[in-house]
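ARCHIVE RECORD
Type: protein–small molecule complex
Small molecule: adenosine monophosphate
Source of inputs: curated submission
Record status: active
Notes field left blank by submitter.
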Amino acid sequence: MRVVLVGPPGAGKGTQAVLIAEHFSCGDVATGDIFRANVAEGTPLGRAAQRYMDRGDLVPDELVIAMVMDRLAARDCDAGFVLDGFPRTVAQAEALDHRLARLDTPLDAALNFEVTEEELFRRLAGRSAALHRSDDTEQTIRHRLEVFAEKTQPLVDYYAHRGLLIAVDAIGAVEEVTTRILDALMAKAKAK
Ligand code: AMP
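STRUCTURE (tokenized, with ligand):
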């Protein structure tokens, strides 16, 4: 299974990515987690990414694309992958498409997590308190949502045009949302 997760910060992509990857025994690639690990270790990539992350801005495409292409070459992605937080721009989506076309391993689906803005704020404020993420302050949250609307929202059309988009109602209990996703992926595979 090769899927990408699209949706604003706080939509529950990370939680569901782990469960979907487990279900299909494939790689779980979360770009935000990889960046945070690099920041914590003080690597050159982490140092380059940190100032963008702290402001709630996107890390430049060339850095992200190189990192993800490298990660997708790892063994655990041979059986497929769940990409959480990538792509976030059309340029990133195109880079992913080029790689997958070259390998003749096309995407199966793009899951679009749909959540209301009030629910997002509620969840992100809760996460800020629980995890002390430096990019979950109210001002940064607002900025990240703006960046999402401007840079990432166009991916909904991008994947809809390619017949890959699956809308996911991301409000509800974790298990309910997982069931919705797995049912939708199964229905899409059958319809092929
Ligand atoms: P996340 O945990 O997915 O919300 O990502 C945290 C931060 O990492 C984002 O606000 C960005 O600064 C950076 N980041 C993660 N994924 C990407 C991406 N695909 N493109 C650009 N920046 C990213």
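CURATOR ANNOTATION: The radius of gyration is 16 Å.
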